[in-house]
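Field guide to reading this record: the first block holds the primary sequence, the second block holds the structure written as discrete tokens, and the final block holds curator observations. Each block starts with its own label. This record concerns Protein N-acetyltransferase, RimJ/RimL family, catalogued under organism Streptacidiphilus jiangxiensis.

BLOCK 1 — SEQUENCE
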Amino acid sequence: MEPLDVPVLAADGGFTLRPWTMAEPDLELVREAAEDELIPLITTVPAAYSRSEGIAFVERQWQRALTRTGYPFVIEAADGRPVGNIGLWLRNLSDGRASLGYWVVASARGRRAAGAGLDAVARWALTELGIPRLELYVEPWNEASWRTAERVGFTREGLLRGWQLVGTERRDMFMYSLLATDGG
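BLOCK 2 — STRUCTURE
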């Protein structure tokens, strides 16, 4: 099978979503994310950055497209600076659903990068890819993240107790969904 083609998507606010590269700005994004106390706990971002760990992270993103398990995107600001990551993960595609995950580095938070990226990927997944249901999971304490999901049109369906391993402990997660039939 052919690898997935990760497209370039325009997003609101001048943001662009694009594939990961080995360019220095993308490796710098991984470095900043690795310094965050939370991002490495729930993602594959290395907890301790080195250039080789940064390269391995980017290669993991490429592998997802090669194995057809997901579309990993860099969220890029209007000035060309990479500020975050959003992924559309296809593990449950045969059941008519896919999941999304996103993060933005601390220096770029509060500028609606996550919302712009989430909206662009969700609309593309529902319309261009024809995926009937999108899901995402957010820790209840992470108000910024769940408010982002709600602004984009996701509906909170409930609390999943002990749903996900975060670091070394199982954590509750709010489950959100957006359906192709929601009409937004």
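BLOCK 3 — OBSERVATIONS
The first strand starts at residue 9 and ends at 10.
Residues 19 and 51 are 19 Å apart (CA to CA).
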